[in-house]
Amino acid sequence: MQRFFQILDIGIASVNKTIAVVGIAAGTLLAFINVVMRYCFNSGWAWAGETVNYLFIWSAFFAAAYGFKKGIHISVTILIEKFPPQIAKVYMIFSSILTTVFLLFIVVYGVQYLMILHEMEFMSVDLGIPQWIPMLVLPIAFLGASYRAGEKIFEIAKTPADKVIVNAEAETIRDAVSVVKKEQK
């Protein structure tokens, strides 16, 4: 069972990173090409603006989902650092449960939104495709994010109470240092 979750972990992380990077790169390139075509050649693609918007939206949502894996989302630990370790651990588990439930609500309501778009046959203005296709990002990205938030619950539960806050701080520092090292290379 552990092997299954390792493969799932790698798969979800790969999808999140790939869509985030390809989306931002493709969106930036497409926007640049369209601007050059418009100002240098008095032409351009009418559909490019809407496509760039969708690429950036997909990129942002999948990057946010990946952020749960890396623990880079904003969390305020100043108050729980003052709590006894057991209470801090319970609070962090409760916080992760709330986050997971919230993200799962977005998945459920995202699916309902897609069904409404499909039933009403809304079409994208410039691309001429059904609107539900680009909006697939909602349930897909938030399902990945909810998996990551749920994963955090088990990670915190397995960690000894006196190490929970220390691990959260160390994770933040480690990730910040690894970003700086990558930038220096």
Helix- and strand-based class? Answer: mainly alpha
Query: Which of globular, elongated, flat, extended, rod-shaped describes the shape?
Result: elongated
Span between N and C termini?
Answer: 38 Å
Radius of gyration: 20 Å
Sequence stretches where pLDDT stays below 50 over 5 or more residues: 173-177
Q: What is the helix fraction of residues, given as a range? A: over 70%
Folded structure, characterized:
There is one protein chain. With 185 residues, the chain is mainly alpha-helical. It has 5 helices and no strands.
List its traits.
single chain, 185 residues, mainly alpha, 5 helices, elongated
Reconstruct the topology from this structure.
Blueprint: H1 2-41, H2 48-70, H3 85-120, H4 137-158, H5 161-184
Question: What's the short story on this structure?
Answer:
The protein has 185 residues and is mainly α. Helices cover 78% and strands 0% of the residues.
